Amino acid sequence: MIYIEEHISEPHPSMRKLQELTRAHERSTMLSFYDGTVLLSNMIKFAGAKKCIDVGVFTGYSSLAWALSVPEDGIVVACDISTEYTDIGKPFWKEAGVDHKIDLRIAPAVDTLQSGTYDFIFIDADKESYDTYYEQGLQLLRQGGIIAIDNCFWNGLCMKDSDTSASTEALRQLNAKIKKDSRVTAVMVNVADGTFICLKK
Ligand SMILES: C[S@@+](CC[C@H](N)C(=O)[O-])C[C@H]1O[C@@H](n2cnc3c(N)ncnc32)[C@H](O)[C@@H]1O
């Protein structure tokens, strides 16, 4: 909504530049929305989160947002399979002075999400694996930590029963599963493409 865009805080200059560059990319629709990154950045800061995982980096916009939000001794484990995409973001991580906080792992996220304890996990990669990332993420998340899941609306397709594509079905089933999941307290928020915010009990 334009009214929201007019009133939301200005992005960090490096985030603004990376956003503009990514908007010209042929896969620009994969770029995270700014309102969602501000909401989650505020949550990271409020919670004092230090250890984060970014599942799905693309040009590095979300990783940059989390790295700017954790303290100096914080870390963002950034998971992607494409150096072609992630190489675009690296100069902006450096320019913002937070590249030392980003631990980029080029591998299927399912292999990276194997060990450690984390405060915050953002899921925004291949849709059919979201449930796997959610389950792996819950294992790695500390009690009281948060998993935020992007695309729970999937551009409205999750609400359209006629759409039975694999991605839509995967997201729809995960949405229904989280509603009943006693391991978390979850709220679906109408920002970005729909964001599920799940706090581990
Ligand atoms: C929607 S984009 C991420 C957008 C990013 N969060 C941002 O802020 O702009 C999805 C990313 O997931 C990556 N991806 C796809 N399959 C993956 C996998 N199996 N493991 C890790 N990353 C994967 C893609 O290469 C792509 O960069």
Automatic annotation (TrEMBL):
Q: Spell out the Pfam families in the cross-references.
A: Methyltransf_3 (PF01596)
CDD domains according to UniProt: AdoMet_MTases (cd02440)
Q: Which Gene3D superfamilies match?
A: Vaccinia Virus protein VP39
PROSITE patterns hit by this protein: SAM_OMT_I
For this UniProt record, the keywords arranged alphabetically read as follows: Methyltransferase, S-adenosyl-L-methionine, Transferase
User: Which PANTHER family does its entry note?
Assistant: CAFFEOYL-COA O-METHYLTRANSFERASE 3-RELATED, O-METHYLTRANSFERASE-RELATED
Q: What is this protein called?
A: COMTD1
Query: What taxonomic lineage is listed for the species of origin?
Result: Eukaryota, Metazoa, Spiralia, Lophotrochozoa, Bryozoa
